[in-house]
């Protein structure tokens, strides 16, 4: 598995990204963040701190929140990846997204994809989290605009909506 | 961008060890990648081969020996798995609670206990508590297995007793008798804790039996406070005793100075955490604080 032009090692990975099967030839050194943005055009995946502190690049791999900036793309082989682009159904926002809109939990929006995906993982784990559980789970997602209050409200609101309609 | 490397996925410890031996400094062990990938991105390390040990069967097992006295945590167990393990929660709840507060949810999902300890970043949460608990680190290569006490495993900043061809395979943690208190305290306002403290202490008949007291994060590696431990042994708990212990810790610590905290400030944090831990262990004074 050496590219004949570049003489670099390569691998073929197969994954499901936002519900669609994807097959890609990548280098072992390729980061998930770059593959999602540059190869698949998923620009909702944001690059910010680059050291797994801020949460802007969060995606879900088999349901678990992952920093795509510090994950090798190789690691999604055989797995299911969800980005913010996969959350809405047509024009219908996911209840978590709608809660973020309704609670004004977004200002510049840069942290929002990571916040929403982390919230999805939280609510899968703990459908009706306490405020303290929300704070602990989202503690690794930084927002420089909102002061967090509206985000915490939005997560509580999303939990209520999803409990009402059955998780999707 | 990360420099070019290839990746190998050995199926056994012996196979991984042989690869490490063959490639020497050109190889790096890769598991969760939470520390390694940052070094690769910054080109502080440019290995030509990553030895991905995640596919070695059995290295993520968590179990309690039939005696109930020894917890075995496989090197590939993630912080999240340890935090959620019913075995760990029942045997050593403070260890589970400590793991639940490591970094953030993404790091806890990816990061392994073996990687955390092998990297020997001085701000490791579990390292400090594991030394206080008297844990042992198992190292294995194609030449065999040896066990090193956790307090001897960390030899300096980002340095351990692990040989290049060895894998950290297991952490062996003795459980505690009823009446023995296990406490982890930390002070954290940045991404990594500024100071941490592990305390394992038993009290019988109104007197302290033995105390193991470890200060982490403030120096090059977590260190046992031998003088404070010796002073506490056999004494009846009292505010004066605890103040003396805290003063000894302040003297005994050897803080490094960095961009965030001065040495004096770190000494003060270590002394304060000592007081908090001793008060918590004896149910006296105000407990808790920033964790």
Could you write a compact summary of the structure shown?
The complex is a heterodimer of chains A (168) and B (291). Chain A is of the alpha+beta class.
| Class based on secondary structure composition and strand pairing of chain B | alpha+beta
Q: Structural class from helices and strands of chain A?
A: alpha+beta
The overall pLDDT average of chain A reads 96
Helix content of chain B: 25-40%
Instruction: Return Rg of chain A in Å.
Output: 17 Å
Which architecture name of the largest domain in chain A does CATH use? Roll
What is the total domain count of chain B?
Answer: 3
Descriptive account of the structure:
- The complex is a heterodimer of chains A (168) and B (291).
- Chain A has 168 residues and is α+β, with helices and mostly antiparallel strands.
- Chain A is built from five helices and five strands.
- Chain A has helices spanning 32-39, 95-102, 112-125, 131-137, 149-165; strands spanning 11-17, 20-26, 58-61, 64-67, 80-82.
- A five-stranded mixed beta sheet of chain A has the order 2-1-5-3-4, with helices on one face.
- In chain A, α2 crosses α5.
- Chain B has 291 residues and is α+β, with helices and mostly antiparallel strands.
- Chain B is built from twelve helices and 14 strands.
- Chain B has helices at 13-23, 36-41, 79-84, 86-91, 93-100, 105-110, 113-119, 125-132, 150-153, 226-232, 239-252, 263-281, and strands at residues 6-8, 27-30, 49-52, 62-64, 70-74, 136-141, 144-149, 154-156, 159-160, 167-174, 180-187, 195-204, 207-216, 223-224.
- In chain B, the strands form four sheets. A five-stranded antiparallel beta sheet of chain B has the order 4-5-10-6-7.
- The radius of gyration of chain B is 19 Å and the shape is globular.
- Mean pLDDT of chain B is 95; it is low at 287-291.
- Chains A and B meet through β4 of A and α2 and α6 of B.
């Amino acid at each position: 598995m050496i590219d004949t032009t570049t003489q670099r090692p390569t691998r073929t990975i197969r994954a499901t990204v936002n519900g669609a099967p994807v097959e890609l030839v990548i280098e072992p050194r390729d980061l998930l963040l770059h593959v999602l943005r540059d190869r698949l055009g998923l620009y909702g995946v944001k690059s910010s701190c680059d050291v797994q502190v801020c949460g802007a690049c969060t995606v879900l791999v088999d349901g678990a929140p992952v920093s795509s900036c510090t994950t090798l793309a190789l690691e999604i082989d055989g797995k299911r990846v969800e980005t913010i682009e996969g959350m809405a159904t047509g024009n219908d926002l996911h209840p978590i997204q709608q809660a973020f809109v309704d609670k004004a939990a977004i200002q510049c929006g840069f942290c929002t994809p990571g916040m929403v995906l982390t919230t999805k993982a939280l609510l899968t784990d703990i459908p009706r989290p306490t405020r303290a559980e929300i704070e602990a789970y989202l503690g690794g997602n930084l927002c420089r605009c909102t002061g967090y209050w509206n985000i915490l409200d939005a997560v509580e609101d999303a939990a209520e909506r999803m409990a009402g309609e059955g998780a999707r | 961008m990360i420099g070019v490397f290839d990746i190998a996925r050995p199926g056994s410890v012996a196979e991984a060890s042989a690869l490490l031996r063959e490639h020497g400094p050109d190889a790096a062990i890769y598991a969760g990648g939470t520390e390694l990938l940052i070094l690769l991105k910054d080109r502080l390390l440019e290995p030509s081969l990553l030895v991905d040990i995640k596919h070695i069967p059995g290295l993520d097992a968590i179990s309690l020996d039939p005696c109930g006295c020894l917890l075995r945590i496989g090197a590939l167990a993630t912080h999240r798995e340890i935090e959620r393990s019913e075995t760990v929660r029942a045997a050593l709840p403070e260890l589970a609670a400590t793991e639940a507060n490591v970094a953030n949810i993404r790091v806890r999902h990816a990061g392994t206990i073996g990687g955390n300890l092998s990297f020997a970043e001085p701000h490791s949460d579990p390292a400090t508590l594991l030394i206080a608990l008297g844990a042992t680190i198992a190292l294995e290569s194609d030449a065999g297995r040896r066990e090193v006490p956790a307090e001897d495993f960390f030899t300096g900043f980002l340095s351990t007793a692990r040989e290049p061809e060895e894998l950290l395979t297991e952490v062996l943690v003795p459980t505690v008798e009823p009446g023995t208190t296990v406490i982890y305290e930390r002070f954290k306002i940045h991404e990594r804790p500024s100071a941490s403290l592990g305390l394992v202490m038993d009290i019988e008949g109104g007197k302290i039996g033995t105390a193991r007291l470890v200060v982490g994060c403030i120096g090059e590696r977590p260190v046992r406070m031998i003088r404070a431990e010796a002073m506490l042994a056999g004494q009846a708990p009292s505010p004066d005793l605890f103040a003396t212990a805290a003063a000894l810790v302040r003297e005994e610590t050897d803080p490094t100075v960095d961009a965030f905290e001065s040495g004096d400030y770190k000494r003060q944090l270590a002394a304060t955490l000592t007081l908090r831990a001793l008060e918590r262990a004896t149910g006296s004074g105000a407990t808790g604080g920033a964790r």
